[in-house]
Write a structure and sequence with these properties.
alpha/beta; globular; 2 domains; six-stranded parallel sheet; Rossmann fold; eight-stranded mixed sheet
């Protein structure tokens, strides 16, 4: 255990000079791995409220698609999820409603629950920080019951969740951790940073989980650099695995008729953004750009598909610029409806601003736009610049350049043939490199490599 503390204290050697794989590179397979062996994998999601497998949003999309893909490849996969004061075991992620409750030990006893309830009431009444100590202990007990017999445990990282990592350490179960984003950085960008003891505990627990992991999967090279420089993780321990896309859903022909009728798209060019209304998505910047687009193409429409905390600011921007008749906000829509929305669109956009920290995530919408064959206008941000090739399968603009972004959109609205050519190129790349099937193959390779290294 002393080695754990040394590593979590950032005393291990950091090898930054290692060449980092790009998003289109495959992870080489070990030549002597046994591809016919089927694995029993337990996937853990302790962060309460973070992932809902019944809703195709955010991190739930890659989690659900990867687990269903592993099941389709013959592996036995179950998912542990925290639901209030219960830990649920989902034996088949395609039917998450068929979950069963895991019996736990001390954390399920009445005296424990009474003490927990009293402390939670005091915490809520005094507005004290949330540390998830009860949740972590409950999840730890559940893992001790479920993990024996598993070949490997894979967890989706969340703040204040160390139960899975500690259970894997105690049982000697190989442990893979997906670190999709630095949530401390996200909170800082949202203006709600953790402070004092709250932050110290979050940092310590995150370092402990990263240290105990046999392999850490992240979604972008920017996240990898952050894991090495900020968290002191060995580069050799990290795998970069960008998100993917459901080709059956987004590459299939879709009828735009109902979308055109519902949102009054009367034949003019349609520009679409799909995603959460977050500060790092640059939607207010997009609205400002679109004012210039409408000046050049009066019948153009902007369709904003999604919702989130910055929506009131976006609505004010639309009103202040007099764009009420040109911009529509749909609110949240089911993922199954997005292909029809994209089918009704001429241009899809990714207007990310210049962020205080390098853009660390892997935008699902990027791969969905590509699979749907849309002409894409995007800023040169993070993984986007690694995937899109300017003027070949999209148009790349410097973050914050209102004039250039607007001119790129306008040029595609006025040149459908060029837009179609860019979209076709993007679609080919999505089919070749970015399907969830391709993603799952890489996950499987990571699992087998982890198991092989653990047996040596």
């Amino acid at each position: 255990m002393a080695a754990v503390w040394r590593e979590s204290g950032l005393q291990e050697e950091i090898r930054i000079s290692r060449i980092l794989p790009g998003p289109d590179q495959t992870i080489p397979e070990s030549p002597d791995s046994d591809q016919d062996v089927r694995l029993r994998v337990v996937y853990a999601v302790q962060n309460a409220g973070g992932i809902d497998l019944e809703v195709d949003l955010g991190d739930g999309v890659p989690v659900k698609n990867s687990l269903m893909g592993l099941q389709a490849r013959g592996h036995r996969v179950s998912c542990l999820s925290l639901n209030g004061r219960s830990v649920l075991d989902i034996p088949d992620v395609s039917t998450p409603s068929a979950a069963r409750r895991i019996r736990v030990g001390l954390s399920g006893a009445k005296p424990f629950l009474w003490v927990e309830s009293a402390i939670r009431r005091v915490q809520k009444g005094l507005r004290l920080p949330y540390f998830a100590f009860f949740d972590s202990f409950r999840f730890y007990e559940a893992c001790l019951r479920v993990l024996p017999g598993a070949d490997l445990c894979h967890e989706h990282h969340g703040l204040f969740g160390v139960g899975t990592a500690l259970a894997c350490y105690r049982l000697g179960i190989p442990y893979v951790l997906t670190f999709s984003a630095d949530q401390l950085l996200e909170k800082e960008l949202k203006g709600v940073p953790l402070r004092g003891i709250h932050r110290l505990v979050a940092v310590w627990e995150t370092k402990l989980s990263l240290t105990l992991a046999d392999r850490v999967i992240c979604v972008s090279n920017a996240t990898r650099r952050n894991l090495v420089s900020r968290w002191g993780l060995r580069s050799a321990k990290i795998e970069v695995l960008p998100n993917g896309v459901d080709l059956k859903l987004f590459a299939a022909p879709a009828d735009p008729g109902s979308v055109q009728q519902e949102w009054g798209l009367d034949g003019g060019p349609v520009v679409t953004f799909v995603g959460g209304f977050q500060i790092w998505h640059g939607i207010e910047f997009l609205v400002e750009c679109f004012r210039r687009v409408v000046e050049a193409v009066p019948n153009a429409k902007l369709l904003l598909v999604g919702d989130g905390p910055t929506r009131p600011a976006v609505e004010r921007a639309i009103s202040n610029l007099g764009l009420e008749s040109s911009v529509q906000i749909t609110g949240l829509v089911p993922q199954q409806k997005v292909p029809a929305i994209l089918a009704a669109s001429d241009v899809a956009v990714l207007p990310y601003p210049q962020l205080p920290q390098e853009m660390w995530f892997s935008p699902l919408k990027l791969y969905e736009y590509m699979a749907a064959g849309k002409a894409i206008v995007a800023t040169r941000s993070g993984q986007i610049e690694e995937v899109l090739r300017d003027q070949e399968n999209g148009i790349l603009i410097e973050p914050g350049d209102v004039v250039a972004f607007a001119e790129a959109i306008t040029s595609l609205c006025n040149d459908p043939a060029r837009a179609s050519k860019l979209g076709a190129s993007a679609s080919r790349q999505a089919r070749q490199s970015h399907s969830w099937e391709h993603y799952v193959e890489r996950v499987e390779t990571i699992y087998r490599r982890t198991l092989k290294e653990g047996s040596n």
